[in-house]
Structure formats: structure tokens, C-alpha cells
Amino acid sequence: VQKTLHELAVLLKGKVIGDGAVIIGRVRGIEEAEKGDLTFIANPKYLKKIKATSASAILVSPGMESLGKNLLVVDDPYVAFGRALALFHPEDHGFTGISPLAVIEKSATVAGDGNVTIYPGVYVGRHARIERGVVLYPGVYIGHNAVIAEDAILYANVSVYRRCLIGRRVILHAGVVVGSDGFGFARPGQENVKIPQVGIVQIDDDVEVGANTTIDRAAIGRTWIQRGVKIDNLVQIGHNVIIGEYSIIVSQVGISGSTKVGKGVMLGGQSALVGHIQIGDYVMVAARSGVHKDIPPGQVVAGSPHKPHRDWLRTEACISKLPEMRHTMTALLKRVKILEARLQARDEKGD
Amino acid sequence: VQKTLHELAVLLKGKVIGDGAVIIGRVRGIEEAEKGDLTFIANPKYLKKIKATSASAILVSPGMESLGKNLLVVDDPYVAFGRALALFHPEDHGFTGISPLAVIEKSATVAGDGNVTIYPGVYVGRHARIERGVVLYPGVYIGHNAVIAEDAILYANVSVYRRCLIGRRVILHAGVVVGSDGFGFARPGQENVKIPQVGIVQIDDDVEVGANTTIDRAAIGRTWIQRGVKIDNLVQIGHNVIIGEYSIIVSQVGISGSTKVGKGVMLGGQSALVGHIQIGDYVMVAARSGVHKDIPPGQVVAGSPHKPHRDWLRTEACISKLPEMRHTMTALLKRVKILEARLQARDEKGD
Amino acid sequence: VQKTLHELAVLLKGKVIGDGAVIIGRVRGIEEAEKGDLTFIANPKYLKKIKATSASAILVSPGMESLGKNLLVVDDPYVAFGRALALFHPEDHGFTGISPLAVIEKSATVAGDGNVTIYPGVYVGRHARIERGVVLYPGVYIGHNAVIAEDAILYANVSVYRRCLIGRRVILHAGVVVGSDGFGFARPGQENVKIPQVGIVQIDDDVEVGANTTIDRAAIGRTWIQRGVKIDNLVQIGHNVIIGEYSIIVSQVGISGSTKVGKGVMLGGQSALVGHIQIGDYVMVAARSGVHKDIPPGQVVAGSPHKPHRDWLRTEACISKLPEMRHTMTALLKRVKILEARLQARDEKGD
User: Fold this and answer.
1) Residue A64, pLDDT above cutoff 90
2) For residue C195, which residues of chain A lie inside 8 Å, CB to CB?
């Protein structure tokens, strides 16, 4: 793909400053960009890098216009950069059609042959529905009565259990499991009597789920991942959890059963939430935090057990000073003993 | 499915109080239950909810009889609730038989066509044995000489390596890996010479393993998951580990090589055990604990490195007070300095 | 397989002390070894075990010769033990050839039928290249333009996305995902605009990757696992990460985007590295550490946030003493108050 900067300006809704006829053939980061490349700068503190780059054009935000380079001024340079990447490197799913080597049960409903991509080695169960634009890679398993809505992409070896609902434009990366049984047993540690998990998982539109992440079906009712949520790799989401719109869950997070996460929440890598709590909208949880109770909206927390981020910083600073504190305390103890002895001596002397 | 409360009483071995002819068509939690539903209450502290519910009948324990609702008195309401769920929502594996699109090596032994369920896309290796009642979902891989005992259910894309043994009624959720090589290398960090892992994994009867959990084969001998153990999603179990009967391992736990876990042990989510230690029977390890040495039977531990739970609580309380402690100590230091100065002044004055 | 100790001496490049004609049929650990077995001792502190063992021969290092048993003296007994295991328990991949039930796109390049092992249920995409000696187990997915170099072994249900490069003799255990999209979104928590991930993963020769581990493709450029690296199960490696030669990554570690790990580094289980940092050569990171900034070469660190290991030990010792410290401080406070009162009384008395 080759485009002039002018053409890109139309596609990315930006304004050219400099030579609009310059030809762009590739998109690169600012450090690696060379002649023929488009790059971007999101943060004014990196302005110096613009001077050093050999890129043929740079995406910048308004107010960064006069830099003596070919610029494309856009509202959000990082978003525009993403769109440019999609333009120059469109993902290619290989073919449209239903492979004769896929197994599709007769009672399943699949959008016409010209509208879906179903690879060899896919299995689609009874009464499942596969809508138009869906891509199912080899090894994908769709249980009975599951629904895969329009334009969803399921990469290799994804497993979607019976009756689960996958929204439009959802992306499930390789090895994702949706709808495995929640972890529910009566008489734990003694007989471990299984409580059947008869609910479902519902994933709303525009969700993306990272490789080998697992999302358990509800005991009763639904586990619910709302619109626009992005989940990284190897995350565990327990039964009956609800994740609010546009929240972001970084890799290896674990969320126990029935916890409700608000919208726009950020959960840092390897953090964990116990079950049956509520996390307010726009909460930020630092990486590796252990959250053991409700968090009101907008809070930033860290640590395990979690604290407000400021308290955590203060506490951590103290912990670093602990050996010194202990030393000081030993010295203090000695000095107080001496003071006591001196006063005692005076008392005994009678003055 | 529809049953009268009387019929349910027979099936769940309970005693009806109230209208035994009432018809039950569904099983729900106490908050959501409506007319026609059976619900349960496990804990007398939720008795108030019984008055508020619209459920047509409620499972209760003995001693909770006189509540003015239709009751089914059973020994353990949660267990009975589980059984009722299984009655009203029986899991349906779709068909009995061996799909012609499964690949079964000639030397494998598979129970007769009418006794197993083998989906398309399954692979069963040489000399493997698949016993009656087994269900193998699409994408299941059974290595050579492996054994899958009666009534085991292996969901989609499970991989069982060569020679591993899966017990009766075992459930392996999608993406589980049993029998991958343990992590053993000579000259680590230099040449990383692989030590072949020639042992097996043995999983005893009635074990359930969550989605994408991995259980490594032994270096020599066996990694052994004993009867009734329940393992959640994304757990890692190293080579030569032994997990005692009925223990419960919550998601994202990691257990390093050769560690022995007793029976009835509970390991909280994201906790970790180092290698070559012994965890006594009925130990409870709090979520996110890091266990670095043996734990005697019956202990409750928390923290990383772990401590007895009481000590951990006391220590955590102190940590929260650290900024305050530090402040107090600075003040103390000042006061002692003043005292010293005052005594010094007296000394110098000569009194 | 049966060999005399003399024959083994030739194969393992060792020197026999004792009866070279003794017949060895098996390889076992020192605790379990019986007549007919070869065992080993790596550490002189276990010399006592040699006297107790019934093994027919023992691998030892130079300087441990005169023990009254049949010995095989080698440079590195553990390495020799590994080789002996491989001799007595060679792994058997079942057949050589390309199953007619594998799906190989026409434009793919696959080494001749006699030189590779491709099981039923494998999918090889357009323009992919499978070199000689490769073994692909059932359910393996190879995306378009990917390369699997000589003698690599990919176990069941491994997914390699488009254009990724897998080196010679690489072992990918079941469920591994290579090349899933990195976690990159603009306007996080608001719109979560996806940044296309157009780079690749490159895995160099002699790398081994544990079951269900995930390695994300680069945003632009490559995520790069260098020669001889060994990665355990359920590890997460973010986009654009570089892991230096012969480093060892224990299970459930998470490494965020663009971090560079040096060579010979050891990362303990469940530890985590934030993004965009550099870890020097031969650094050792204790299990469960949280690393938040660069670490110079050769350091040993622990804790979360991480500290030099010695500081961590000192700090942890203090934390254990915190309840005692707090008690001491309360007592000190009281004693200082008394001193102050006594001095005050004297002042008031006028002496």
C-alpha cells in the first residue's frame, strides 16, 4: 500500500502541514521510522524526537504545528496511528466461505457461505447460530445453542461452551475458554459435592479477550462482560462476575465469583479481586494488588491488601525505612535507660 | 422438567412442610426466585430472605421448619440444591457414539460405540484406552498409552500426553493440559540442558480440573492428583507434586515441583507453594500467599512469605500504623533530646 | 533397553570404578533406585545416600571415587543422568509422515513426507514453511507465512499466528499461543480504540515453552525469545519484549510490553516485570517479586516492589518484629512521659 500524505489526511481526518504529496508506504514508531514512513507523537514532551526522526511525515495534535517537518495534525495522534496501521497492514483472514472440513451440526444456523469464514477443523454444535462476517479459525469449538454475532473473530482453538453469547465484533484470541463451569462445591474440603453450573456467559459487542483467558459460566444467570471491555492474556473471570463497559483488565488478573466491576475500571497485571464485592466506575487498581472489599468510584488503589494509592506510597516508604527505624528505636531505648538511671542516681543521692 | 414438591422430596430425601402438590419447574437463587421456583437457604442468618421470596418452595435444614412457606427439609440444603439443579438442568452431551470424523489409532481400546461419546476432531493415540461412559469433546488429544477411565468428561481442546491416567468421573475443562514436561534443566542460566521427563500424571477418581490448568508429568515416577480434588482454572502443578484427597485449589495457584499437599487442604487464589515442601492435612492457605516451607496439619496461614493467620493479621495491622509509628518515633526522639539537654544543663549547673 | 556400565561409560563419556559388566536397565532417583538401576548424586552432601542405595551403579563427579559401589565418574552427574534418561526412555513421536487428515494449504512448503511428522487435525496456512524433522501434534495451527524450523516439536493444540518464526529444536508444549495480539489500546477506559499489532514473534533455536504459555506479537517489529531460553507453563510475555539467551522463566511469570531481559536471567515463579524496563544479564529475581524498574547486571532481587535481596531479607525480618516494635514503642512513650513528669516535678520544686 502506498498513499500520499494528502490521501492519508482525508482518510484520517487530519490537516497537512508541509508537503502533502510525499509518499507514505509504511507506519513505524518514532525511533525506527525512516524515509517513506509515517510516525506519530502523542506526548509534547517527546517533541525533540521529531527533529531527530527521518520519517517522511508525523502525526501530531493541534498546537504542535510549526516544527519544520511534514505533519498531519489530528485530534488524537495515537488513534490516528492505529488507523494508519490498519490501513497499511490490513489483517487478512485468508478466504471467505465454509470449509467442507469444518463440522457443522444440521440444526445450527450459519450465515450464507459467502458471508462467513469457517476454517477446517471447526466444530459448530446443535442449534448454534453463526452470524454474517464471523471468522472461525481451525480448532474452534462452538457448543450447542451458542451464538456468535456479526463480525466476531475467534482465533485457533477457542472453546465456547453451550448457550454462551458472543457479541458483535468481539475478538477471542487463541485458546480462550468461554463458559467452563464455575468453581462451586458444597462441603468443600470434605466431599466437594459439585453444584451444577447452569448459567451462561454473555459477552457484549466490541470486547476483546486475550489468549488462554478463561471466563466461567454463571452458576445460575449469567457472567457478563459488557461492551468494549478489553481483557489481556491468561486472565481468570469467575462465575457471575460482571465487568462494566470499557474496563481494561491486564494479564493474569483473577476475579472471584459474583464480583461486580464498574465501567472504565483499570485492573493492573496479576491483581486479584475476591468474590462478592463491588468496584466503582473508573477505579484504578495497581498491578499485583489484592482487593478484598468494595472500592468507591474513582479511587486509585495499590497493595495487597489494597489501600488508597497515597497511603500505599506512604506505607511502602516506611517499610523501606524499617531497618533504620528499628536501629533508631534500639538507640532510643538505650538513651531512655541512661536518663532513667541518671534521674534514679539523683533520687538516691537525695537531690 | 416439572415436578411436584412431593416428588422432589423423594428424589432429594427430604420432608415436605406445607403444600406438597405445588409444582416446581425451575431452580433459582433466593434473590431471583419466583413462583414455580425451588430455592434454598443454607445459613439461618438469611432467614429474613425466606419471608421476602416469591419462590414456590425452599430447601431448608432441620430446625428451620415453621416459617409459613412450602419447605423441603433436608440434611444439607446446599447439597440438595445442587442435586435439584442437576435434575432440572441435566447436562446434555449431545449423542452417544463415535464420530467417523474422530481419529482413533487401531491399537487403541475404546468401549463399544453405544457406550462412549467421541466427537469429530478427537484424536486417540496408539494403545490408549477409553472406557465406557467417557465423553471426549472436539479437539481432545489423547496420547499413546493414556487411559481415560469410566464416565470421565474431557471438554474441547484438552490435551492428555502419553501414558497419563485419568480416573473415573474426572472432569477436565476446555484447554486443560495433562502430562506436559516438568521444568527440569541442568546448568540453568548457562546451557539449560534438558532433563527428560519420563514419568506420568495420575489423576484419581472424581477429580475436576478447571479450564487451561496445566499439570506437568513427573521427571521420574508420577505427579499424583488424588480422589475428589477440585482444581480451578489456570492453575500450575509442577512435576512430582502430590495433592491429597478432597483438597481444593483455587484459580491461578502455582505449585512447584515435588511438593506434597495433604488432604482437605484449601489453597486460595494466586497463592504459590515452593518446591519440595509438605503441607499438612486440612491446612488453609489464604489467597495470594507465598508458602516457602512446611506447614503442619490444620494451620491457617496468610501472607508472602506466609505466617500463621493470626500473626499475619497482627503484622498487617502494624503495617497500616507504620506512618503513625514513624511520626511517634520522631517525636519521641525530640523529647528524649530535650530531656537529655535538661539533665545536661543541670549537670553543668552542678546540681 | 539394557546396557552394561562399560557401554554406558562410552556413551556418557565417563570412567567406571567397580564392576563394568553390571547390567543397567533403568534410571531412577537415588531414593527409589533398586538393583538394575543407574542413579546419580550431584551434591557431595548426599554422599551418605550412596551407601544406603540399592542401585547397581551411581553417576558421581571426580573426587567422589572411593565409595565401595559401582561408580561412573563424569564431569557433571546431573547432565549425564539426563542423557541416560534420554537413552533409556527415548521419546517416540509415533510415525514419520504427513497424515492425509492434516490440512496443508497448497502454497505452504513442507519438507518431504519422509522427513516430518504431521498428525491428523493439524492445519498449516498459506505460504507457511515446515522444515525437516518437525513434529506437529493434533490440533496444531500454523498461520500463514509462519516458519517452523528443523526438528521443532509442537505438541497438541499449539497455535502459531501468521508470520511468526519458530527456531530449530524449539519445543512448544500443548496449548502454547505464539503471536496473539499485544494489548494496545488508545483512550484506555474510554473508547479502547484497538491499535493493530502488525509485528511478529521470533523464537530462536533451542527454546522450550511450557504448556498454555502465551507470547504476544509485537505492535511493530518483533517480540524476541533468544536462543536456549526456557519458559515454564502459563507465562505471559507481552508485545515487543526481548528475552536474552539461556534465561529461565518459571511458571506464571508476567512480563509487560517492551521490557528487555538480559541473558542468563532467572525469573522466579509468579514474578512480574512492568513494561519498558531493562533487566541486566544474570540477574536473579525471586519468586513472586514485582519488578518496577531497571536492574543492573548480576543483581539478586526480591519483594514487591523489588529490592536487592539482602535489603529484602533485612526488611522482612523487621516486618516480623513489627508487633514487638510497636509494643516497645508504646512502653518507651510511657517511660519518656514519666521522665518528663519527674523532671517537671523537680523544676516545680525548684531544684
Assistant:
1) no
2) 78, 81-82, 85
Assess whether pLDDT exceeds 90 at residue B52: no
Q: What local confidence, expressed as pLDDT, does residue B350 receive?
A: 67
Peptide bond into B305 cis (omega under 30): yes
Strand partners, C243: C225, C261
Q: Taking the mean position of all CA atoms in its chain, how far away is CA C199?
A: 25
Tell me: the pLDDT tens digits for C248-281?
999 999 999 999 999 999 999 999 999 999 999 9
Do A70 and A54 touch, CB atoms closer than 8 A?
Answer: no
One of B89, B144, B239, B306 is an active-site residue; which one? B239
Average pLDDT over residues A189-207: 97
Preceding amide of B297 cis, omega within 30: no
Locate A70 and state its grid cell.
511534514
**B166: which 3 cell numbers?**
485419568
Average pLDDT over residues C7-20: 95
Q: For residues B325 and C114, what is the distance between their CA atoms, to the nearest angstrom?
A: 74
Strand partners, C273: C255, C291
Collapsing DSSP to helix, strand or coil, C332 comes out as helix
**Best interface-test mutation with B: which of A104, A145, A214, A292 has the largest number of B CBs within 10 A?**
A214
How far apart are the two ends of chain C, measured CA to CA in Å?
Answer: 98
Q: CA C332, CA A3: separation in Å to the nearest integer?
A: 76
Rounded Cα–Cα distance for residues C182 and B44 (Å): 49
Assess contact for B269 and B251: CB atoms under 8 A.
yes
Q: Position of cell 538505650?
A: A334
Residue B84 half-sphere exposure, CB side, CA atoms within 13 Å?
Answer: 33
pLDDT tens column, A110-127: 998 789 999 999 999 999
A182-208: b (≥16 Cβ within 10 Å) or e: bbbbbebbeebbbbbbbbbbbbbbbbb
Rounded CA separation A205/C40 (Å) = 58
Nearest to A250 by CA among C225, C272, B231: C272
CA neighbor of C46 nearest in space, from C58, C36, C38, C57: C58
DSSP A218: P
Provide CB contacts within 8 A for B341, sequence distance 6+.
none
Residue A333 identity (one-letter amino acid): L
Residue A96 to residue A88: CA distance in whole angstroms: 21
Q: DSSP code of B218? A: P
Compute how many other C-beta atoms are within 10 angstroms of the C-beta atom of residue C328.
Answer: 16
Cis before residue A305, ω within 30 degrees of 0? Answer: yes
All residues of chain B having their beta carbon less than 8 Å from the beta carbon of residue A220 are 27-29, 32, 85
The alpha-carbon gap from A114 to the nearest alpha carbon of chain C, in Å, equals: 20
